[in-house]
Amino acid sequence: VTSAYGDYNESGNAGANINFPQRQSFHYQVITQWGEKELEAAGLARVDWANRLNLASVLTLNKYQNKTYFFGVANLQNYGLLNDPSLSAAIVPTTKVATGTGWANATANEVLNDIAKLFQQLQTQANGLVDRETPMVLAISPASDAAGLTKVSEFNVSVADRLKKLYPNMEVRTAPEYTTASGELVQLIVPELEGQRTATCAFTEKLRAHPIIVELSSFKQKKSQGTWGTVIFRPFLIAQMLGV
What we know:
Elements: E1 26-35, H1 36-44, H2 49-71, H3 108-125, E2 136-140, H4 142-149, H5 159-166, E3 170-174, E4 179-180, E5 183-189, E6 192-193, E7 196-197, E8 199-209, E9 213-214, E10 218-232, E11 238-242
Parallel strand pairs: 2-3
Antiparallel strand pairs: 1-10, 2-5, 4-5, 5-11, 6-7, 8-10, 9-10
């Protein structure tokens, strides 16, 4: 709080709030193995088989890690960006709600109106701390991106172009996870406000390569990682719309 200035006045102070969400980590692993003749046969075809297996194991781990960032881990206090219980309930779009066709059969103006409705919801949740100039991320599925943001108005201007003028600091990010069993989901996220992050994708350990075990005529290796899911510190800066 502030106080009136005075040469000998020592009142007025500022502090900070710290939030420690409770989460449970989850550790997981993958094992690769290869044999001597297997390596030799692949080598004749000029295939670096051991390296291919190594790349496949890392990709498998990272795909699962990415999945936990969206959905967390079942039966643990480990949540993702799409299912954290602290998130506000998703609002419904105005566009084509009666027919359930969403943006697929909407006009460019109808798509823009849905995004404007989502932005207004975000403003309400943030109690007016967010405006059109605030850096934001519009997170949607590739299907919604194609069905909605490529729409062209009667003046030959796309929704994507109009968004850049209406919300100059808005980025559009796509991920297939936004196509859910309940319909197409859209999130409008303020990544940071007043110097504090809204959420973070957290991990305990990113790729531990365990020792290579030498067998009689083969080899094997374990790799492991750990995840906390997505930890959301300020859920009021994430607004959701389901059914576009």
